[in-house]
Specification:
It is built from 7 helices and no strands. By secondary structure, it is mostly helical. The longest helix is centred in the N-terminal third of the chain and has 29 residues, at about 5-35. It binds protoporphyrin IX containing FE. The site of protoporphyrin IX containing FE has 26 residues, from helix 1, helix 3, helix 4 and helix 6.
Length: about 220
């Protein structure tokens, strides 16, 4: 029996999958590395150096991050433009989540473009034009100098919050759409688990960012 899968179906499934693997996994790894800043400049610079020492790192970045990211981002924008929000007629939580998933996607599009040009490539004139990846020895200093500007730090707070919402809600959408979570009760319980995951990830992400401007992060000097 031949199974015919429509092109849109396959593109859609690849979009959903790319949000989890590799992008979701990458976000976890990224927050973990950033959290090394809690232990000070030396620990963070060492972590950046280790990452840059991965064999074939450029190909790993291109194949494992940039290509899936460009695919997910561009197809995500296509989906967003086709969306027909109906929140005013049907003000249910799921409808709001649908709208926020798309809104955070658009925010992420601009935030990630800015973030890559800012720290990965050091290409924004006037904003420490040094690539963190090219100077692991002063990686911490580059980020902490960037974050010493309040508007820039706020941009990162918005970006981290949008990323966490998009990923936590995305995990829920993925589990429902791929038939992993079936039934009303399971979907509700998974929803609570995703909220817990989101709150945890948000605290980790913000704490790591704060560690670049306050030694030890939010709890520095207390713990
Ligand atoms: C860069 C700009 C991005 C845009 C424009 C974008 C857009 C979207 C859109 C519109 C959806 C909803 C798809 C649907 O409901 O059918 C979605 C889902 C998703 N996105 Fe993104 N996204 C972006 C970045 C990211 C990043 C960086 C991650 C990794 C954390 C990510 C993870 C996910 C996940 C896990 C889903 C759920 C997949 C599913 O519906 O099963 N996205 N994205």
């Amino acid at each position: 029996m031949a199974i015919h899968l429509s092109r849109t179906f396959v593109l859609r499934k690849l979009h959903q999958l790319s949000g989890i693997v590799p992008l979701g996994i990458f976000v976890l790894e990224h927050f973990y590395t950033n959290s090394k800043a809690i232990n000070g400049a030396g620990a963070f610079n060492e972590a950046v150096k280790d990452l840059q020492a991965i064999p074939y790192i450029l190909f790993v970045e291109i194949g494992g991050i940039f290509i899936p990211l460009i695919y997910h981002a561009v197809y995500g924008l296509v989906i967003t433009m086709e969306a027909r929000p109906n929140n005013l007629n049907y003000p249910y939580p799921r409808n709001w989540f649908y709208l926020i998933q798309r809104t955070t996607g658009v925010i992420l599009f601009f935030f990630i473009a800015f973030h890559l040009l800012h720290f990965r490539f050091g290409l924004i004139p006037g904003l420490n034009p040094t690539s963190v990846a090219h100077r692991p020895d002063i990686a911490f200093e580059i980020v902490s100098r960037g974050f010493s500007s309040v508007p820039i730090f706020l941009v990162y707070m918005v970006g981290i919050t949008a990323t966490v919402w998009h990923l936590a809600n995305g995990v829920w959408l993925f589990m429902v759409d791929w038939g992993i979570t079936i039934g009303e009760r399971a979907q509700r319980l998974t929803g609570y688990a995703c909220i817990g995951f989101g709150i945890f990830l948000l605290l980790v992400g913000i704490n790591a960012a704060v560690a670049f401007i306050r030694p030890g992060g939010l709890l520095g000097g207390i713990l």
